[in-house]
Amino acid sequence: MVPKRLLGIVASGIFIFTVSVKGQSVNIPPYDIATLPNGLKVLIMEWHRLPLVEFRLTTRGGSSHDPAGKEGLASITAALLRQGTEHRNAKEISDAIDFVGGVLSTAADLDYFSVSCEVLTKDLKTGLELFSDVVLHPTFPDSELQRERAQRLAEIEGYKEDPRTIAGIAFNRAVFGKHPYAHPAIGNRSSLQSITRDDVTRFYRETFLPNESILTVVGDVQADEMLRQLTAIFGSWEKRSPQTVSLKAPEEIHGRQVVLVDKPDVTQTQIRIGNIGIARNNPDYFPIIVANSILGNGFTSRLVEEIRVKRSLTYGVVSNFSANLVNGLYSIATFTKNATTREVIDLALEEVKKFRDSGATEAELEKAQNYLAGGFARSLQSPAVLAAQISMVEFYGLPRNYLNTYIENLKRVTLSDVQRVAKKYFLYDDLVILVVTPAKLTESSLAALGPVKVIPFEEAIQ
To answer: Which member of 10, 117, 138, 221 has the lowest number of beta carbons within 10 Å of its beta carbon?
Structure first.
């Protein structure tokens, strides 16, 4: 939640970059790049339209680096960064950032950690002190570890009443198998019980390295002075050799596999369909996101039109490609009454087949390009968003002009591009089809789709 003081500032200056949706262009300010002697890459973008400053650290790591049997370690490490340092306890950190109306957050994604802090320009000193303190001097108090563990175990227990979350977790496991992307970032019951404070401190020391990190500053600063301050604070951060983590591309599923998570008490079935998707640096990224918008991303997509609008079989259906350092997930997600489970699956598969066979129309292509271009332009409305965007450009090794050419690249996608990627990436015969549903009501109707593997609901939340 954005504190009211920052929210008022952001609201007063919504159009913070030169953006022309009608003209299909964006003009994002350039940023300075420097690398400190310890290997820390620093990105600084001056932007003076509002008195805000965003700090963001992106460090290679994340839940894909969790050791076997310690799943959830990256997520817990990230959470504990702001729960106590050599200079402040958890309450003092929270009180200090709240007092200036700022935001201080930490997170572990699949591929990376992030720490971010946003403050008003007048509170830059306080913000930088807090931000650097949680990055450089965390102490990981055991009492806070116990609290985090208890909260996560309680959250997992709550999954018993959350078929949607279980569908996502079980689907990832079914698609990714033994790959590091398979397990949920939160961990599981047994892995959480095994994590110790020594595990956390060791993981932090092995993964939080300046030579594996990107430090981004966007806002009302002078680049030269900001670099001087950052060098003084982060220049002594010790450079070390990173732990070797081999993150190979996951193997695609061949043929159709049906996974039924048996939950006898649900009246609606959660449905997930998909396979391995794409890496973030895939050269077909723009044709894929345009094609995906046509098939299942947006209120006028084909899946929504066929399953929701025409037949009223669901309130929502969406297709998606999550793109990571290595191949992520291609998925279709929806839900329906138990009695119409097979009908909805058949309809979704038929739409994929038609899309692969016939591609898109000129009108669909133009609508998708305008929808994505407008959404991208409107998203660039805060230093926090822009700091995240340019951090990801550097992290994934994308071209430096990526953001300024984003809409241009969308507009370059042709109908032949859409049909080509539809045939290549929008799989039809090689799929995992996962449902969370009462087995006694739906198992027999699913048998014709492929071999059915039934998993008890309790097993799915282990």
So the answer is: 10
